[in-house]
Amino acid sequence: MSEDLTIVQGDKTAQYENLLPQIKGLLEGESDLIANLANVAAAIHQQFQHLWVGFYWVKGEELVLGPFQGPIACTRIKKGKGVCGTAWEKSTTLIVPDVEKFPGHIACSSLSKSEIVLPLMKSGTVQGVLDIDSTEYATFDEIDAHYLSAIVNLIPL
Ligand code: SME
Fold first, then answer.
1. Which residue owns the Cα nearest ligand 1 atom 3?
2. pTM (2 decimals)?
């Protein structure tokens, strides 16, 4: 495994195309979930410098804060609550261009303006979610959903 991530500038697709094989390399030969979630969060954060990149993991009826990069965050989210809890309940990716317009959005940081949340699935069940927050409105789109889905699908669950 290479110790340094190679960061590229350019459009979003070019950035993801550069990042994806490096994340594949980071995950190869490592089966520990916490280690892999931690490195995936760090790699996405290093490339894009988003406000917050991290995971919440399903524990019983709640999501519990997992490995992340960024400011401190709320530790527990109930099913159906906020963007993360809704993505979990509906087993679907949510792209939120303006968090203030999302009913029930949980504001961990007042700096967060837009957000994307993807569920991580195993055998049809949500195991956890990847949550990314941006200080800009409308940061995330279908390109992010596509590549972030490819990234989380690399994580052995
Ligand atoms: N905004 C999220 C909560 C998690 S923080 O953004 C890190 C939500 O509404 O679920």
1. 106
2. 0.96
